[in-house]
Write a structure and sequence with these properties.
5-stranded antiparallel beta sheet, 10 strands, alpha/beta
């Protein structure tokens, strides 16, 4: 059994992504997660963490979790992910008194539409406070991103979680799936593309990997524009590739050593939900 010590802070950054990617190189049959030293776990990392675990369960017999400190345990109880650690959490939860958590949700292709799940967890909790046009557009684009997990990933499940941080006026959430990777899909249409070019291509206007000839390619382009105007960033982890677009539209790319058998989109946007954003773009 391998004992893996988790870092103190688990945030949306390349260091965290590499830490979880390195778990995929483990050759043991059992893994022991030493999590008692964690002081902060960003909610937008939870779907990626869950997807990594689901991939590990295909090659490992067990994953064991060390005693989690009280603060981090409360975090997992509030966002409803704790039950994935141990059966003792199945009937336990903590109230989200300040309505800042996006519950960990397994979205299924043939169940409730992703648009309604996104709307219930973001709009209905007042986690966004844009004017109606921007709000509707944002919810629609995020819903499309979730539904694309099924179509482009050729998979029937996707994972969703996040949190609003009032002190820094930040909403951070992510959507993960264990389906076809972006590079696998893009190279079916553009076989000469390098991996980084595949990630750049999906954010261009009018590009799509659909095979039936139907139009597309506006969703990620428009979502990137809204995120940019909200001084946010988009992170994509797919296969062996890490790709980040920051608030200044700067690109950071990293080839990851181990292949993650899926795709995760992490979105961060900044605004004060207590102040109505009326600006029209």
């Amino acid at each position: 059994m391998k004992n893996l010590k988790f870092p103190k802070n688990i945030k949306n950054n390349l260091e965290t992504i590499i830490f979880f990617n390195d778990l995929l190189s483990d050759k043991n049959k059992e893994i022991y997660y030493s999590m008692k030293g964690i002081e902060f776990f960003e909610a937008s990392i939870v779907p990626y963490f869950h997807s990594i675990n689901m991939q590990l369960y295909k090659t490992h017999e067990n994953i064991f979790y060390d005693n989690i400190n009280t603060e981090i345990e409360a975090f997992f109880l509030k966002n409803k992910y704790a039950k994935n650690f141990n059966k003792k959490y199945l009937d336990l939860s903590l109230e989200d008194k300040h309505k800042t958590y996006i519950e960990f949700t397994t979205m299924e292709k043939d169940a409730e539409d992703a648009f309604y799940i996104i709307e219930r967890n973001i709009k209905n909790k007042n986690l966004i406070n844009f004017n109606d046009n921007i709000q509707s557009s944002f919810i629609s684009l995020v819903g499309e991103l979730a539904n694309n997990s099924y179509e482009h990933g050729n998979i029937d499940k996707a994972y969703f979680c996040g949190q609003y941080f009032p002190r820094i006026s930040k909403l951070s959430f992510s959507i993960s799936n264990l389906g076809n990777t972006i590079v696998e899909n893009v190279k079916q249409k553009n076989s000469n593309f390098l991996n980084q070019k595949c990630l750049e291509w999906i954010f261009e206007l009018g590009t799509t990997t659909r095979k039936d000839g139907t139009s597309g390619g506006q969703g990620l382009y428009e979502l990137r524009n809204i995120v940019h105007k909200l001084k946010g960033n988009i992170t994509v982890i797919s296969g062996n590739d890490y790709y980040n677009i920051d608030k200044n539209n700067n690109i950071e790319y990293q080839f990851l050593e181990n292949k993650y058998a899926g795709t995760t989109f992490i979105i961060d946007i900044y605004y004060n939900r207590e102040v109505k954003l009326w600006k029209r773009w």
